[in-house]
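Limitations

Structures in this collection are predictions, not experimental determinations, and the ligand pose is part of the prediction. Treat each record accordingly. The example that follows, with zinc ion as the small molecule, is included so readers can see exactly what is and is not provided: the inputs are given verbatim, and the output is the predicted complex.
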Amino acid sequence: MVISYKYRIYPNKATEQKLNEALDTCRWLYDRLLQEMNEAKESGIALGKLDTQNMIPSLKLVNPNLRKVYSKALQMVNYTLWSNIKSLSASKKNGRKIGHLRFKGKGWYKTINYNQSGFKIDQDHSLLHLSKIGDIKIKLHRKIEGTIKAVLIKKSGKEWYAVVQTEPEPSMPDPETRTVGLDVGLKSFAVDTDGKSVENPRFAERAATKVKNIQRRLSRAKKGSNNRQKLRDKLDKVHERINNRRSDFLHKLSRYYVNNYDIICVEDLDVKGLKEKGHNKSMHRNIHDASWSKFIFMLSYKAESAGRKLIKVDPRDTTQRCSACGSIVKKELCDRVHECPYCGFSCDRDYNASRNILFAGMEQPVAPIEPKPLHHISVMQVLAMKWEAAPLRTR
Ligand SMILES: [Zn+2]
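Predicted complex:
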């Protein structure tokens, strides 16, 4: 993608003289190369782009003014000639009747093309430096961003312009960018590509006996009685405590990832439908589903406000694929270990998935790695993390 900026430039008398001369020399070269081609054609020789380009050095003996023009700009004259020929033959193919390419008369050549080199732009002092021409004042009404690929000097009436062509900086992640892939699941709440395995909080399961107890007493309590109301409040309190703790856990864990990584890759759970994530029979299944969705939602808004990136990837084959060699290694839900019969890579099932998620998100190919033991993070460790500033409760 090329982005063009057009700026007015203000050459002084002497520089303007040089620019006018350079334009006329370019025009001379254009016409001369066209003439050489026409003559060659008449004697049955079809010249190519490179043939005409190779004529330029010897033409400097014919017209010493060529030496006063930046050599790359002269090559671009040849380039312009050939692109004109190309568009002419294209219109001929479209059935439009067009004669021979015309010679350019005095004043009809209007562009000097500094391609790749021969120019320098000093944005601080608003100066454009052109090789063989000198410094020219440039009015930079807009800051130039990206890598400058070319500067085209154009004459329009009595005014001069510089068209600056840029390409945006490549967005490849530099080595400083901290990336992580996360696989959420039932056994561990999350396993990441750095080998961390975060314990799944089972707040609801842990409180299950207590909840059942209260519920049983509640069912026996007389309707409208004080006791019944008390038990109700007690039950509400237990539920609220569970919810608060879970929320606390999710906030702290998502904060941890946003604070420590620039790019976080997760599975797109809307696509996955959570099918493969664990046993469907689990009684608290829906709670876990909700927790993962909430966790990813928290990651997404925290990442956005911190200028980090959350990438959701297509969950297809993230579990089955070998993250070392790319082979598909079928596994059942109960298979906790990934063991690749093709390359011998063996590791935790979810760790393998997290690597695939990271590769998919970063659009990188799979790569071998030395397996290492996972580092276990307990729920208590997560809860002991510092609470973020200005918490946003989304319970
Ligand atoms: Zn493999």
